[in-house]
Amino acid sequence: MERKPVLYMYYRSSSAARVSIALHYKGIEYEPRPVNLLQNEQLDEAYVSKNPSALVPLLIIDGCELSQSVAILEYLEETRPEVPLLPRDPAQRAHVRAIVGTICCDIQPLQNLRVLKTLPEEQRPEHARSIIARGLSVVEAMLEKTAGQFCVGDEVTFADCCLVPQLINAHRFGVDMGHFPHICAIEANASKLESFNRAHWTKQPGCPTELLSGPIQADS
Questions:
Q1: Spatial contact of 157 and 98, defined as CB atoms under 8 Å apart
Q2: Would you list the domain boundaries of the chain?
Q3: How far apart are CA 144 and CA 140, in angstroms?
Q4: Hey, which end of the chain has fewer CB within 10 Å, N or C?
């Protein structure tokens, strides 16, 4: 019997959530393995030997150890295309990848745990809020040309897998979402899908119950 894929993840990592959404959407059952970033478990020698970047996610699948969420999404699409997450049209694929790049290159890395830890604790929420709001303004402008029910047309794509987890941080850090009607509509549509709900951070292993209504912490 083929072994289940294993996803090393942190419960409130938006990068790991991208992969979790894609796995659920494609109907791929997997075993989640929590990596607690606050306790520096990602620096354990055994984990670093698998993933030299010492980041999450890491997906073990088909005998491969795959890091970097977007590379993992591409691998899943190439090896399991039956439930697609990319449009057939080349121009639409380019639009999807442009939105993905904006989120994964211009927003998330500038407000993640490693960056926030370099700032005084009292400055972290405002820094994250500013970075996220600026980036979402760009995404919103892009969506004016591409959006249907989801980021590019009416089908879920990589762009939605990346956008929705980023909105978890937007809400956590108090971004005014009233400026982003397309984004809010996409979030509402995604909330109706099991794949997005199952990947929500509150439903991941390792999520402390006390954080569900607790204060913001710099751990995304």
A1: no
A2: 7-82, 90-198
A3: 6
A4: N
Phi–psi pair at 14, nearest 5 degrees: -70, -30
Contact partners, residue 125, CB within 8 Å, separation at least 6: 173, 174, 216
List strands edge to edge, sheet with 64-67. Answer: 31-34, 6-9, 58-61, 64-67
Joined together, the tokens standing for residue 152 give 């590019």
- Reported as a single tens digit per residue, the pLDDT across 151-178 is 999 999 999 999 999 999 999 999 999 9
Q: Which residue has the tokens 């990346």?
A: 162
Structure tokens that stand for 71 in this block: 């590379």
Tell me: the pLDDT tens digits for 108-148? Answer: 999 998 899 999 999 999 999 999 999 999 999 999 999 99
Burial annotation 92-105 (CB, 10 A radius, 16+ → b, else e):
beebbbebbebbbe
Q: Which CATH class is domain 7-82?
A: alpha beta
Strands 31-34 and 58-61: unpaired
pTM for this one?
0.93
The CATH number for 90-198, chosen from 2.130.10.10, 3.30.450.20, 1.20.1050.10, 3.90.950.20, is 1.20.1050.10
